[in-house]
Amino acid sequence: MSDPIRLLLADDHPVVRAGLRAVLETESDLSIVAEAATAEQAVALAAELDLDVVLMDLQFGPGMNGAQATAAITARPGAPRVLIVTTYDTDADTVPALAAGATGYLLKDAPPEELAAAVRAAAAGRSALAATVADRLVERMRTPATALSTRETEVLELVAAGLTNQQISGRLHLSQATVKSHLVHIYTKLDVDSRTAAVRTATTRGLIRRGGR
Questions:
Q1: Which domains does the chain have, with CATH numbers?
Q2: Which strands, in side-by-side order, build the sheet including 128-129?
Q3: Which residues pair with 164 in a beta bridge?
Q4: pLDDT, tens only, 66-76
Q5: Residue (of 185, 117, 123) closest to 151 by Cα position
Q6: Exposed (0-12), middle (13-18) or buried (19+): which is 144, by Cβ within 10 Å?
Q7: Residue 42's pLDDT is what?
């Protein structure tokens, strides 16, 4: 019998970690080696322990987020695979996480058998994507001219949060002229002519979260 797949659970909510543990411990070929309550702790444990897969949340509160932790983990030689397990499936979440090196992306409401299958796929180096995420990525590839860039998504999320161009400029360390340029491109891609319409359309399409960050 082959060795079990060694897992690290990284989520800032103890109840979520307990739920994942309860599901995964029923699988004889999966072994939970450790848990992390912060993204920084996940990065440190991934470097210290012999792991196959890290199940990573995206939002941890203050400090490093899940996408940043994923990039730090996967940058190391012989690093474990990272499987994102989150409640968010917008482009603003999925694209940075996958670009950071995540092997898979699953939603927390996935059935137990789907979660276990995704872990096994990740351990084998195969991608495992939630259906909604896969569909949206395919759509981005089909219509690249209308897909928002990562920076455009960041700008629009801050617009959705109620920030002015000046505040967005300070937050993202961009000139106000650059912020305005991004907004022009966003309006063109979404075929809208106002900030309100841009936020509404992007939210409806699943490009940004409802209510911004």
A1: 5-139 (3.40.50.2300), 145-204 (1.10.10.10)
A2: 30-36, 5-10, 53-56, 81-86, 104-107, 128-129
A3: none
A4: 999 999 999 99
A5: 185
A6: exposed
A7: 98
